[in-house]
Amino acid sequence: MPTYSVNAINVGSFNLGESDKIITLFSSERGLIRAVAKGARKPGAKIAGRAELLAVNKLLLAQGRSLDIITQAETIESFKAIRNDLTRLAYAFYYAELTVHLGQGLNQESQIYYEMLMAALRQLCDLNKEPVYLCLTFQLSLLHLLGLKPELDSCVLCRKRLVEYDLGVFHHDLGGAICNLCFSTKTPQGKGQKYKMRLAEAEEAYGYQDNIEPKGQMSSYFTHLTPLVWKKLILASYSPEQKPVYPNNGSSEIIEKTLIAARHLLETYIEHRAGKKMKSLGLISI
Q1: Alpha helices by DSSP H, the chain
Q2: Less Cβ crowding at N or C end of the chain, within 10 Å?
């Protein structure tokens, strides 16, 4: 039976039979792999800890007909600091679930994404760093690799450079922001004050989410885009040396709520693109 070795992060698992597990791995060499960890559920089994979610292992796998089999495993990293913090652990589970659902599109960039995921998990281990903001940067980096990074600098309809007093909505099908003029004149849903009032009501009730399903030529899912949320998304989308400077006005509570709203917007956009709800989001308390 042919064998091969990989460095891989465990991003998912489910039980097989009475004592085995099927592990979903993201490897630097081959991208997503599903393999059987035999005896992983037996008490005291050596492979049990190495089969845990988020464990990073150097693996030797034997090629099977339908599923490969893990024959050797050596732990590289386990991210203990994350496991001791429930909030950070919830975010790490979210990263893993995103990898399971979207990782198939990253096989050509497997080395790049593997290093990016490792770096993101190591950053979560730093208790001085805000996990909500770290999540924003991870989401945007993943979308960039997938070719789905949202357009935030310019209106996706008229291509005019966006400024904070000219923001309309974030359009999930078009993958970016629409200026207020295009929203009010070029979309059937944007005409008139009534729809804007409904947007405001949705913002207040659902935390910037507009759950109204529009009708017409641009049927889609909209999220109202405020200047503060837009600025946080812009800041998170640039590398440190490229970041524009915006004054950090407002209380720490306002800043935190803005970060959460920006994260919710990207969560909704990713789920819209993936066509799946991410179950791990239920573990994140904010």
Answers
A1: 47-50, 80-83, 86-102, 110-124, 131-146, 180-185, 193-206, 227-237, 252-274
A2: N
